[in-house]
Amino acid sequence: MDKPQLDSCVTAVIQRLTQRAETGQRKYGTNLDRTDLDIQDWLLHLQEELLDAALYVERLKKEVPNG
């Protein structure tokens, strides 16, 4: 059976993930296979990313007209 063709959205996300992984490797000298962080460290990183996302959403809501 032939491998299904990925749509443009999936392809774009894969490319972005690959770019982010490469950028992170260059910036931090490691990747997500690192073992120097414990679960609390990983949870803190996740929480910080989610808080950033909430701020971005709040900022963008100012650009959307009330409808």
Radius of gyration: 17 Å
Number of domains: 1
Share of helical residues: 55-70%
Query: On the 0-100 scale, what is the average pLDDT?
Result: 95
Percent strand equals under 5%
Low-confidence stretches: none
Biggest β-sheet, characterized?
none
Shape: flat
- Tell me how many strands there are: 0
What is the CA–CA distance across the termini? 48 Å
Helices and strands, in N-to-C order? Answer: HH
Query: What structural category characterises the helix and strand content?
Result: mainly alpha
Distinct helical segment count: 2
Describe the overall structure.
By secondary structure, the chain is an all-alpha fold. It has one domain (8-61). The protein has helices at 8-28, 39-61.
Short description:
The chain is mostly helical and 67 residues long.
Features:
mainly alpha, about 70 residues, 2 helices
Write the layout of secondary structure elements.
Blueprint: H1 8-28, H2 39-61
